[in-house]
Amino acid sequence: MSACVMACILASCNNEDATSVLEQQESLKTINLAGKEIKNVNGTLSFESEGDLKEIAENLISFVPTKSMDGALTVNYAQVEELRENGFTSLYDVFVNAINDVDSYYSRIGGYEEFKTKYSSLFFPEVGDDISPYLPISDKQLAMLADTKGEVLIANQKVSLKDITTYEQLVDLGQTLPDGISLTAERGDVVTGTNEISETRVGDNKVWVKTHYKKKDGSIPVMQVEVCFRKKYWLGWSNHNSNTTAKLGFGSGLQMYAGKDHESAVAIHGFSSHDYYYAIPNMVGIPSTIPVNQEVIIDHGGTGLTLKLQCKYDSYMP
Question: What is the DSSP letter of 134?
């Protein structure tokens, strides 16, 4: 009798434990993102509508172009960590892991083929000597919400967010190697340019810079400075991790701002491109023509170059 009671108690405890585990597992499947409850269904995020997906994607990266801005887009790491802590791995995570693995695979014979197999969900256009992996989703924020296959659930239906299928699309997005003039330099050299710096090679590394002058979210005028780079491996050129720092130097007229003061340096580590954003004062009463003449000083770790970029625009271009 005692044995029977004990068995029932143990069974009851085991059932309670099992129920507790199931409840915990169920709670882990629900993630709060941007004030919305999103479910992780077997590794794929489920959204009620396309509108919910876009709203949450916009909240993953924040940007406030003011005088006290930090000079770069800021990922909302609290939201990203919320995803990871709940067992979700995105296609963007796969891409980051791939870039972290580039050196160990691409530097040896046979490694490239192994790399492509390991990261088969990424896009490998293999045009010319470009052997870089690319995200097959053009919107980086959407890639952070797509599962490892590039999919999400919308109204319980699987939808692929992959929209990159050709090299020409990557060219249009400005993600590929440039076709412009190539320069050769030595580590420690200073390379200058106005509004852009041509592809400059030092040994097995090269770097180039592009600028875009626009309004962010239709409000404050912003200068975007893209520092792009690649590394040479035995089969070709690939994206990889590198370090850059950028700060504002000499300027005249309306100046751009970043950091606590306009001389602040901002550092970025990771894959190309490193995008720096600078606010232009939006002064009341000034005409729509906003002249800019401002130097941005960039140090690139891969080439060891100092890049002095003169951002010079006579008028605002929407």
Answer: B
Check if CATH label 2.60.40 holds for domain 183-313. yes
pLDDT at residue 35, rounded to an integer: 77
Q: Is 231 helix (H, G, I), strand (E, B) or coil?
A: strand
Residues 6+ apart with CB under 8 A from 293: 251, 252, 253, 310, 311, 312
- In angstroms, the Cα distances linking 282 to 70, 222, 249, 257 are 18, 10, 20, 11
Query: Any idea where the domains of the chain sit in the sequence?
Result: 34-172, 183-313
Helices (H) and strands (E) in the chain, counts: 7, 18
The CA-CA-CA angle for residues 86, 90, 93, to 5°, reads 105
**What are residue 303's DSSP bridge partners?**
none
Q: Give Cα 318 distance to the centre of its chain.
A: 24
Q: What is the mean pLDDT of the chain?
A: 81
How far is it, in rounded angstroms, from Cα 28 to Cα 78? 16
Where are any strands of DSSP class E within the chain? 30-33, 36-41, 44-47, 61-62, 74-75, 151-154, 157-160, 183-184, 190-194, 196-202, 205-215, 221-233, 236-238, 241-253, 265-271, 274-279, 292-300, 305-313
DSSP 129: T
Residues 6 or more apart from 58 whose CB is under 8 A from it?
141
3-class secondary-structure state, position 280: coil
Tell me how far CA of residue 280 lies from CA of 130, 193, 212, 258, 283, in angstroms: 36, 20, 13, 10, 9
Residue 212 is predicted with a pLDDT of 85
pTM of the model: 0.81
Amino acid letter for position 137: I
Contact 52, 36 (CB under 8 A): yes
Cis (ω within 30 of 0) for the bond into 273?
yes
